[in-house]
Amino acid sequence: MNTPTLRRRSLGLLLVTGLGLTVAACGESTDDGAGEGGKVAITVNGQPPKTQPFERKIFDEDVAEFERTHKNIDIQPREGFMDPKTFSTKLAGGQLEDVYYVFLTDPANLISRKQAADVTDYVKDVPHYDEIQPTLKEIFTRDGKVYGLPTANYSMGLLYNRKLFTEAGLDPDSPPSTWEEVREAAKKITALGNNKIGFAEYSKNNQGGWHYTSWLYSVGGNVAKQDGDKWVADFNNDKGKQVAQYLHDMRWADNTMGSKQLLVIEDVQRMMGAGQLGMYLAAPDNVPALVNQFKGDYANYGLAPMPGGNGTLIGGEGYMLNPKATPEKIKAGLQWISWKYLNPDRMESDLKRYADQKQPIGLPASPPAGASDIWTGPLREQQATLKTKYATVPVENYQPFVDGLADLDKKIEPPNAQQVYAALDNVMQGVLTNKDANIDDLLAAAETKVNAALAQVK
Amino acid sequence: MSTTTALAPDADQRPARAPERHFTKLRRKVTDNLTAYGFLCAALVVFALFSWYPIVRGVLLSFQQVNFVSAAEWVGWDNFETLFADPLFGIAWRNTLLFTGLALVVGFVIPFAVALVLNELRHMKGYFRVVVYLPVMLPPVVVAILWKWFYDPGPGLFNSILRTVGLPPLSWLNSADTSMLSLVLVATWASMGSATLIYLAALQTIPGDLYEAAELDGANLWQRLRHVTIPQTRFVLLIMMLMQIVATMQVFTEPYVMTGGGPEDSTVTVLLLLYRYAFTYNDFGTASAMSLLLFLALGAFSALYLRLTRTKG
Predict the structure, then answer these.
(1) Gap from B269 CA to chain A (nearest CA, Å)
(2) Nearest to A156 by CA among A105, A217, A220, A82
(3) List of chain A residues whose C-beta atoms are within 8 Å of the C-beta of residue B67
(4) Domain chopping of chain B, boundaries
(5) What is the 3-state secondary structure (H, E, C) of A270-308?
(6) Interchain contact, B263 vs A203, CB within 8 Å
(7) What ipTM was reported for this prediction?
(8) pLDDT 10s digit of each residue in chain A, 458 long?
C-alpha cells in the first residue's frame, strides 16, 4: 500500500496542531486600529466570494455607504465566514478579523474559551437591541455579559416538492403536520416509482445528530438538560426511542428513504433539485440553494412547519468581536453590525434592491438582511408587510411554515453541539443502515458519549 | 649515531613542513565543510521551523489548555484523561488496528501477487506496469469519490455487477459489517502500484539459476515460491510490511471523505478522531495528546525499521 518516507510520516503526525500555529504566529499583527486621520480601521469578514457577484456587489456597496456615513471608520472587508478549521490558527496568528461571523452553534464554546470580546458595556448603544428576539440574544449572553449580536435566524421545517405531491395525489397546499402524515405521504411518493424517494435524512459529519435533535424537539424531547451545575444527556427515554423507531420504520418497514444512506446536506439537496425526493427537514434558506445550485423552481417547493407540533430547532448566524480588539474597534465593529444587519431604517431599501434584481423575496429567510427573522413587536410586523409588498417568490407556498411557527417551542442547540451531534450521528446511522438495529443499545451508547462531551462544558 | 645524523636533516625539516600541510588540510576541511554546512543551512532552518519546533510545541500542547488569547494554562494529564474518558478513543484505536490488519491481509498479499504475475509476463510488460501504477497518480480524494459511486447500494457499479450475475447486492459502506473492508479495498487499489513496483524490482534481483536448480530438483510452482522467491525477497517484504503498518495506522482520507467515521463509528480512526478534536471541537490540547500517543506507537515501528535497515546495511 502506501510507501511514504517513514520518518517523515511518523514525525509529521505531531505537527497536526503545532505547524499551523507556528506559521500563523509569524504573522501576528500589532495593529492598534488607528488608521489615517485618526480613523478606526476594522477588519470584518462575511464578504461574499467573487463567484456570487450580486451578493458581493451588495456587500461592497454597503461598505462604501457605511464609510460615507461614518467618516471615522475604515472598513476592511475579508471574504469568508466561520471555518472551525482555520479559526484558532487565525486567532493565534493575529489574523482573525475584528468582527467575525459565527453560526449560532459557535458562541457557547467561543465564550467558554474566552475567544470573543465582552461587549456588554457597548451594546447599550446598539439601536433596537431590545427588539431583537430574546432567545437569540440569549445565545450570545453568559452570566449577564454580552459577547455578540445575532443577525439572522432560521427554524427547521419540512421542505417538500409540490410537484411530486400533486403527482402522488397529495394536496400540496395541505402539507403533513404529524409524523404519521409524513410517513403516509412518503409512501405515496415512493410508490410513484422511477427511483422516487419519499423522505431523506442526513446521517454523516454531525449532520445526522443535528437532525436527530430537530426530530427530538418536534416531539417535545430534549438532547440535554441541566442537572444542577452540570449538563447531562436527556434523550435515552421514550421520546428518543420514538424518534429512532419512526426513522427505522420509514427506512425498513415503509422503505421510503432509499437504500443509499450516510447522506449529507449536499446529497439531499441534489436529490431534491433533481426532482427525485419528496420531503426533507430543512430551514427556509435551503430553497434558494435548490434554485441557484440545482436549477430548481421556486414554484415547485413548499415549506411546512416542523411536524409533531411541539418544537423546532432554531439556528442562524451572528457576529462576535475579536477578544484582542481595542475598545475603539469594538465600538466601530458594533456600529457596522447594527448598521449593516440590524437596521430597520434600511429594511425597505434592502428588500427593494433585491426585488429589483429578481432575487428571492418572500421566503421566511435572509438574505437580504432586511428579511432576517430576528425582530419582535412592531418591527416584525413592519417586516412582514414589506416582504409581502416586494415578494418575488410564491409566498403562499411558504405560508404554512410562517403560520405554524408561532405555535412551536423554539429551542436552541445543546452545549458542545458538535461533539453531541457527532455522538448522535450514530443513532441516525444505526437505524438507517441496520435493519436489525437495537435502538436501546444505540441510545445507551450515544448517551455515554454525549455525557462525556457534556462533562467538558464549562 | 650515523643514522641519527643521517636522519637529522629530515627531522629538522619535518616540523617545518608538517604545520604547513596540516594547515592546508585543515583549511580544505573547513572550506569543504563550510560549503556543506552552507548548503545544509537552508534545510536545517526549514526543518527546525516546520518540523522540530512544531513537534516540541505539539508535545507541550499535550499538557496545556490553550485559547490563543491568554497565556497557555498547564493542565498536567487532563488532556489525556479527557481522551481516556471518551468512549470513541478506544473504538478509534480498535478500528485503526482492524484497518491495519485488513490492509496487511489484503493490501500486502495482492501487490505481491500482482508483482509475481508481472514478473512472469513475457509480452506487454510495460503496458501492464503502467496500468497497475496508474491509480497512484489519482488524487486520493478523487479516488474516494469515485469509489463512493462504485459502492452506491442502488445504481452503483459493484451492485450492478452483482445483480447482473444473479447475486444479492451488498451494503458496502452502508453497513458497519462491511464498511471497513470496503475502505481497505479503496486504499489498496489506490496505492498498490508503488508497492507492486518495489516487489517487482526485488523479484528481478533473484538469480535465474536458483529457479533452474529448483526446477531440476522437481519443485513445483508453490515450492519455488516458498523456497526461492519468498526467502530471496524476505528483507524487502519485511520492510514493506513495517512501512505499511506505519502508513495504514495513519489512515484518514478514506474514512473522512467516504464515511465520516460511520456507520455506527465503525470507521472512526485515530487520525479522524484527532482531526475532530483539533478542527471541529477546537480542542488543540486533547488533539495534541492524541497525536503524541500515536507518535509514540509509530515511533516504536520506526525504531524497528531503522534497526532492520542498519543491520542490513
Answers:
(1) 14
(2) A217
(3) 113-115
(4) 2-44, 81-312
(5) HHHHCCCEEEEEECCCHHHHHHHHHCCCHHHEEEEECCC
(6) yes
(7) 0.77
(8) 343 333 344 344 444 444 444 444 444 444 555 555 678 999 999 999 998 888 899 999 999 999 999 999 999 999 988 888 889 889 888 899 999 999 998 898 899 889 999 999 999 999 999 999 998 999 999 999 999 999 998 899 999 999 999 999 999 999 999 999 999 999 999 999 999 999 999 999 999 999 999 999 999 999 999 988 899 999 999 999 999 999 999 999 999 999 999 999 999 999 999 999 999 999 998 998 898 888 888 899 999 999 999 999 998 899 999 999 999 999 999 999 999 999 999 999 999 998 998 888 888 876 677 778 889 999 999 988 998 899 888 888 988 998 898 889 989 889 888 889 999 999 999 999 999 999 999 999 999 999 988 988 77
Query: Would you call A1 and B103 a contact, using CB atoms and an 8 Å cutoff?
Result: yes
| Nine cell digits for residue A138 | 440569549
Q: At what angle do helices B179-203 and B125-133 cross, to 10 degrees?
A: 140
**Distance separating alpha carbons of residues A266 and B296, to the nearest angstrom:** 39
To the nearest whole Å, the CA of B277 is away from the closest chain A CA by 9
Which domains are present in chain A?
A: 31-146+317-341 (3.40.190.10), 157-310+411-454 (3.40.190.10), 347-407 (no CATH)
- Reply yes or no on domain B81-312 having CATH 3.40.109.10: no
Instruction: Give the residue ranges of DSSP H helices in B67-178.
Output: 78-85, 87-120, 125-133, 140-150, 157-164
* pTM score, whole prediction: 0.80
Least Cα separation, residue B38 to chain A (angstroms): 23
